[in-house]
Amino acid sequence: IYNFQMMFTLLSISLTDKYYWLAVWAVLGLIGLLFIVEIFLKLNDTPYDNVNRIIRKWASKQFYFVTFLAGVVSGHLFLGSTVNWVDCDKLGIQFSCDTFNILVVAALCIVLLIIGLLTQKEPTKERTQYILYAAGLVVGHFGWSLNIYV
User: Fold this and answer.
1) SS3 of 61, please?
2) φ, ψ for residue 125 (rounded to 5)?
3) Average pLDDT over every residue of 4-20
């Protein structure tokens, strides 16, 4: 039996809670998609073919933002700072600092994507990947810290 009462209570929750549930379902959907892709990769004829190897190959060739974004998410979740890195009021930014921080991270990822697509055709060295991950940790720690919201 489907619980219609729960469906109606979801329609009356606040906008912040709706964004929370949207994020939860998006993450669960991505996990499910990765699981399905992993099953298909295990069923093909290529030995040792899995999502991890494919993403690593992409990240070492052209998609630098993958390694950088992994560092940003790690710094955001596990190393967060309690001090905001920029004062949006003094800079005259019209929107909140939370939005500004996310836009900075997105802009850096887009710049790395463009650099990778335009310049790199050979796999990079591991050292470059470590530098990108460390830069992502710094941005995630100072620029987009989870602890500011706690």
Assistant:
1) helix
2) -75, 160
3) 59
